[in-house]
C-alpha cells in the first residue's frame, strides 16, 4: 500500500469532483469573469441563540448566522426544523460530547431541540454547523444549510475576515467577492462548507504564488506560523492563514487545478474565489510568535479502517455500509488509539470524526484536526485521545454523497 505524500499529510488533500452523478460539477470558464461585491460578513447570531432550518438557509440566511463566542462561554441554543423533511444540527469540529452533538438524532418537521454546552478551553479557532440527516445531507447542504462559528482568541493582530466557501464555490454567499484590507496583515478564516469540492488554495499576484502563513487548522491555533504557498482543504476542513498586505496591488485567492484520482487523473479548473485589492500605505504587522503548546499523546491500541466503494452507488468502511442500529466500534473512555485509515478506492476520501479531535501521525508539525483526506492507494495514521465524555457518535467520509451512500460508522465510547 502506497504511503501518503507529505503535502497530503499536511493539508488533508481531497478532490473537487465526487464520483458519479451525485457529485457537484465544476463549472468551467469562470476564471475570467468580473469581480463580485465587497466581501459580506455573515450576520451575527445574538442571544437568545435560536436557529431554524428553512429551505432558504438557517433562519432564512445563506450562509447561516455567525455564532461568535469565547472559550468558557456557556451556549444555550434552541434549534427548530422548519423543513418538510427530517434534519439535524451538527456542530462541526468543537470537541463537544456525543450527547450535545447528537449526530444520530433526527428531528421531524416542526420539532425542536435544545443544546446547552460550554466552549472548551484551547479551542479558539474557526468551526461551522450543518445538517447531519443521514441519506439527505448532500441535498440539505446544497439548499444552503451551513453556518459559521468563531471562537475568538484576541491574540492575533490582523484584519480578521471570515470566508465560508459553499455551493458553486460562492464565498459568504456571493461569487468572487473583493476584500479591501484595513491593515498590513489579513487573517483569512477559510471554511470549506461545500458538499464535495476539495480546494487547492493559493494566493497569487499575477501568475506568481505568494507566501502566506498558516496559523490554525480544524482544531484551532497551531504552535507557530508555517510559511506556505498552497494549502488544500477537503470538504469540512478549516484553515486560518495570514496574508501580507503591505504592497499595494491586487492579490487573488484561487482554487488551483487538482485531481481527486491521484497523479495523472483529470484535474479541476483554476477558479478565482476572492480578490484582495490592497491600498497603499498599510503599515507592516509582525507575525505572531509561539501561539500554543500542543502535546502528542501515545496510542495504546491500533485499529485499521478500510475505505472503499462500488461504482457511484455504494461506499463502505471495512466492507460495510452504515447501519443506524449497529455499533461498529467500541472504545474505552480515557484511552488513546492509533487508527490506520486505508483507502482502497479509486478517489480521495476525507475522513471526519465527531466529538474527539485527533492528530496526524508523522505530520511535519503538530495540529489538532477533525478531518483528514486519504488519497487513493494510501494509508494515513491518526492518533485519537478519547478523553471527553462517553457516548455514541460517528465517523465518515465528508463528501456528502459518500456519507449518504453508506461511508459512515458508529463509534461507542464507554
From TrEMBL:
Positions of the Plastocyanin-like domain: 57-153, 305-413
Record keyword Magnesium present: no
Keyword Hydrolase: no
Taxonomy, superkingdom: Bacteria
Assigned keywords, A-Z: Metal-binding, Oxidoreductase
GO MF, any single term: oxidoreductase activity
InterPro entries according to UniProt: Cu-oxidase-like_N, Cu-oxidase_C, Cu-oxidase_fam, Cu_oxidase_Cu_BS, Cupredoxin
Membrane-spanning parts: none
PANTHER family documented for this protein: MULTI-COPPER OXIDASE, MULTICOPPER OXIDASE LPR1
Entry protein name: Multicopper oxidase family protein
